[in-house]
Amino acid sequence: MKHCVMKLALAGVMVAGSSASLAQAVVKIGFAGPLTGPIAHVGKDEQYGAQLALDDANAKGVSIGGQKVKFELQAEDDQADPRTATTVAQRLADAGVKGVVGHVTSGASIPASRIYEQSGIPAITPSSTSPKLTQQKFKTTYRVIANDLQQGAAMARFATEVLKAKRIAVIDDRTAYGQGLADALVDSLKKLGTPPVGREFTTDKATDFAAILTKLKAAQPDAIFYGGMDAQGAPLLKQMKQLGITAKYLGGDGACTAEMIKIAGAAMSSDVYCTQAGIPMDKMPGGKEFNERFKKRFGVPVQLYAPYSYDATTALIEAMKAAGSSDPAKYLPQMQKLSFKGVTGNIAFDASGDSREGGVTLYQFNAGKWEARP
Asked: pTM, whole model, 2 decimals?
């Protein structure tokens, strides 16, 4: 009787083993960004971009080291808050994710990056543009987008050389992103011999800008730059109009969104400009097709950096394939060697983890939408 039971048990092990060998291994990829709150639309945009990349990889079928794998996305809400971001990063590390796409904002990416470095998990951001992120020299930190130094220089040249602005005021929200972008602009303006006529600060939670705008109005600026996101940028623009300030409105990529147009409403005009890291969707090698598939899959248009999120996710997958392993310690060295054609263009990184081909595009509001300037 014992002999019979043992045979049955062995048979069960063999069957279980056979089934396991045929099953796909699950590889978890983390995503981190604001999925609630005033800029949730930007976070969801990037989450959808990452999800689409995993959907495409799963549909094609991917083998890593001879093992078929299925990718799953674990999305976490960092609320664009530095403290929450570190909690989220630790949660993703504890969950055993093999790589992270995110965070969305620089203020979240910078503190979270230390957790990923300590855990040895590659993290690649589609949109955090602060130079400080990669200046930390962490081996696990990458980005697929241009940084603020490039954006600040581009806006400074445009404002002074094209718009002929001579009196430029600057406001920022004191976040790593907003202040970093404003600092980059100010540095570039000074080099061009046009230092700001005023520099004011607010927060990324503010709704009333009357005091700082009234102060700046006295300086008679012909352009006002805001470093921050659309949730504050749009009300600020409205209040400029209400106070009779006729200065041109300049912003960074945080203002280059459909939501900015929606919130600002009638305050939008052809005197509103913004810079965006990267190139216009219609100029991206795979932009048109991506936009169509994105809208069909999620029922909403691309807000901002979904194509870069798609490419960031693909970079992690390509590095795993090249290494023949999803183990972060084994595929991390392949990140430095990557070079492939993504939706947004050629994807490759320098020694600091920055994009080798990050460009900047300047947009002007016209006829209800953002239009790229030549």
From this structure: 0.82
